[in-house]
Each structure stands twice: as structure tokens, then as C-alpha cells.
């Protein structure tokens, strides 16, 4: 005889009430555990004990499916319990406070040296001028890593690096540079990008064979280039591409760069807009070699490593949800020399002085490897 659906649902409701009551009792016990750990200084996260407990709980189930279900359920219960304990204990050792120092404002003067990759006319130069003004000492180099190296070694006070484009996505290798050179993000600058097709005066598009630009420039103009059989050559910078066309004096060559680059290098704008999107914008980050942040900062960037295992990323991101912290972006890259392990880069809203942010970061720091705060800075809206 098949049981009536309403009767089944009533039985489920009764079981659910018991689960809620038991969960609340378990959370009360978690509070006592937190008090004990406060008094003894013991860490909240004990990975080995949790793995042992999950194995024991799974063994209690009657079927293999139920065993996996029990382990998945208790994995989340223990994760919630940890987050509750983090919120109770807080940053008792002031670990987060010790990592970065708040300042009223960044130290910027006419003596400030700022490095960017490219040549005059590059979008990075525009970002630098927009952020710092023109009353600083600008240094331009060829490659992104040179910017990072100069800042890390103190040869420049700040560096300007492109990190993300609204059309083409994250700029390859920038997060790796921030990590490798231990740089801190102290600001960001949005620049609306209008990619133009540039050539020597009198260029005939029907005779063009080669187009030069940065990989991001080529990607942002992909729809325009689709029906062209031109050879696409990647350059270190869009403005460098414009300069090359000027210096080569070859009418079969064109560049994708800014209208400003056309003026600087005596080129003609053959097409004023190649963007896939009218709102094409690149986000540049301002970096330095000091662990400081301005007091009005409202955005935090972090990085951490995780093994490629089921549920690991979900449990880490849950720290943001539990603390009502809004994540704005996430990027991952494979870890060098570690197969199937990844480094994640996350941006979220908040300030390192906020209790909610500290609670989230304490939990993430305890449950990940190679954790690092990349910076805390005011967000730039467009």
C-alpha cells in the first residue's frame, strides 16, 4: 500500500524539526568549543580530526549512497560550526591588523616616481595620468614584469598595471606578478578603452597584410578582424604597435591602438572604433612595495591556494556569505609544479578594519594554503 503524500510530508516536517533542534544544540556546543579554544589558544580548524570524524559518520550509514550523503551533510555542518566559532573568537591575535597599516592618504608628490609598461600614448600612461596627475616623475618600460620589478626593488614608488578588461577578461600574468614580487594593490583606475585602427597617411586597407597590437587589443577587435586575412602580430603594448608602424614606414602594416597614439606617432585613424563593446573598459591597479591601505578603502583583494577536491572552493567562498561580504570577482591559475592545484584571486567589498572582513579572512586563512592579502583600496566606479 502506497502511503499518502500528505502523510509523508508531515513525517518529513517532523524529522526536519528534530534536525533543526539538534543543529541548534550542536551550535550551542560549538560555542563552548570556541570558549575553550579562546582560553587555550588552540586553532579552530583541525583538518585531520574532521576527516576522521567524516569517515566514522559515513560508516554509520546503511548504504553507500547514504554514507556519501551523511558525509556531505556533516562537512557543511562542520564548516558552519567553524564559521560560527571564527565570529565568536574574532581576530584575537590581531593577525589581520598586523599585515597592513592604514594611512590617511598615499604619499604622492612631485618627486614620486611611477612606472608603467609601454610608450607614451599607451592606455597605461592614461591611467597613470588620470590617477596621479602630471606632476609626478613617469618611467616607461617595455614589459609588465619590469614595472613589478622596479616597484619591488624601490626603483619606483608605484606601478600601474592592467589587470582586467570588461570585454577580454583578466590580463594574463598580472596576478602572478603581484604574488611573485610581493606587491600590494593600493588603488585602481578604470579607463574607457576605444581601440582604433591606425595606419600611415594614405594607407589602402585593401593592401594591408599585417596588424600589430597587444593581445588584449587584438581580442577586443576580434569581430572586426574576423573577415580579414591579415597576419595578427602581438606586441607588448598598443602604443608600441603604433610606434612600430610609424618607424617601419610600411603601408601594408596597421596597428590597433588609441587615437592619442595616432597623434603622437603621426598616423591616420582608419577606423575610429573597433571595440566589440561600446563600454569597453580596462581596470588598472596601482601597486607599491609597502603593506599599507588608505582608511577610506572599500575593496579587498586576496589570493590563496586550494587542492582540486570536491567542495574545497565552496567551503572557502561560504566565509563571504556567512559574514555578509560581497565578492566581486574571482580568477584562478594553476600552481607551478603542483598538478591539479590552483591559486585563486578574489576581490570583494569591504575594509581590513571591518569585523566582518576580519572574520571572513581569518577563516579563509586557516583553511587554505599560501594565503595572502594583495591589497585594500578604494574602488573606482565607471
The oligomeric status of these chains comes to single chain
Mean pLDDT, rounded to whole units? Answer: 91
What's the architecture of the domain at 1-89 in CATH terms? Answer: Up-down Bundle
Shape: elongated
Strand content: 25-35%
The radius of gyration is: 27 Å
In DSSP terms (H or I, runs of 4 or more residues), the helix count works out at: 13
Major pleated sheet? 6 strands, mixed
Under CATH, the topology of the domain at 1-89 can be stated as: Chorismate Mutase Domain, subunit A
The number of strands is: 17
Helix content: 40-55%
User: Which spans of ≥5 residues are poorly predicted at pLDDT below 50?
Assistant: none
The CATH H-level homologous superfamily of the domain at 1-89: Chorismate mutase
Structural class: alpha/beta
Report how far the terminal alpha carbons are from each other.
65 Å
**String of helices and strands:** HHHHEEHEHEEHEEEHHEHEHEEEEHEEHE
Amino acid at each position: 500500500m502506497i502511503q499518502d503524500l500528505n502523510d509523508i510530508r508531515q513525517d518529513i516536517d517532523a524529522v526536519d524539526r528534530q534536525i533543526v533542534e539538534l543543529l541548534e544544540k550542536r551550535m550551542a556546543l560549538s560555542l563552548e568549543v570556541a570558549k575553550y579554544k579562546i582560553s587555550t589558544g588552540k586553532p579552530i580548524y583541525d583538518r585531520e580530526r574532521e576527516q576522521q570524524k567524516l569517515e566514522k559518520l559515513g560508516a554509520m550509514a546503511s548504504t553507500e549512497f547514504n554514507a556519501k550523503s551523511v558525509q556531505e551533510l556533516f562537512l557543511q555542518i562542520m564548516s558552519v560550526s567553524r564559521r560560527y566559532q571564527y565570529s565568536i573568537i574574532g581576530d584575537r591575535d590581531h593577525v589581520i591588523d598586523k599585515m597592513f597599516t592604514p594611512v590617511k592618504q598615499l604619499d604622492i608628490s612631485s618627486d614620486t616616481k611611477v612606472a608603467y609598461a609601454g610608450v607614451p600614448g599607451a592606455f597605461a600612461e592614461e591611467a597613470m595620468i588620470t590617477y596621479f596627475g602630471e606632476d609626478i616623475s613617469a618611467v616607461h618600460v617595455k614589459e609588465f614584469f619590469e614595472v613589478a620589478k622596479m616597484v619591488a626593488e624601490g626603483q619606483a614608488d608605484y606601478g600601474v598595471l592592467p589587470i582586467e578588461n570588461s570585454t577580454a577578461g583578466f590580463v594574463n600574468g598580472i596576478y602572478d606578478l603581484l604574488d611573485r614580487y610581493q606587491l600590494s594593490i593600493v588603488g585602481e583606475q578604470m579607463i574607457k578603452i576605444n581601440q582604433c585602427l591606425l595606419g600611415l597617411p594614405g594607407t589602402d586597407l585593401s593592401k594591408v597584410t599585417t596588424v600589430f597590437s597587444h593581445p588584449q587589443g587584438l581580442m577586443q577587435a576580434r569581430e572586426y578582424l574576423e573577415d580579414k586575412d591579415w597576419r595578427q602580430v602581438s606586441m607588448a603594448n598598443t602604443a608600441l604597435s603604433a610606434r612600430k608602424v610609424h618607424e617601419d614606414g610600411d603601408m601594408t602594416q596597421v596597428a590597433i591602438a588609441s587615437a592619442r597614439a595616432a597623434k603622437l606617432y603621426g598616423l591616420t585613424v582608419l577606423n575610429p572604433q573597433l571595440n566589440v563593446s561600446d563600454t569597453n573598459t580596462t581596470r588598472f591597479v596601482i601597486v607599491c612595495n609597502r603593506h599599507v591601505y588608505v582608511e577610506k578603502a572599500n575593496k579587498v583583494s586576496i589570493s590563496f591556494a586550494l587542492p582540486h577536491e570536491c567542495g574545497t572552493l565552496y567551503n572557502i567562498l561560504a566565509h563571504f556569505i556567512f559574514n555578509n561580504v560581497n565578492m566581486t570577482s574571482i580568477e584562478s591559475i594553476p600552481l607551478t609544479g603542483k598538478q591539479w592545484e590552483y591559486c585563486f584571486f578574489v576581490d570583494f567589498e569591504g575594509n581590513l578594519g571591518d569585523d566582518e572582513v576580519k572574520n571572513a579572512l581569518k577563516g579563509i586563512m586557516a583553511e587554505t594554503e599560501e594565503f595572502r592579502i594583495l591589497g585594500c583600496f578604494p574602488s573606482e566606479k565607471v
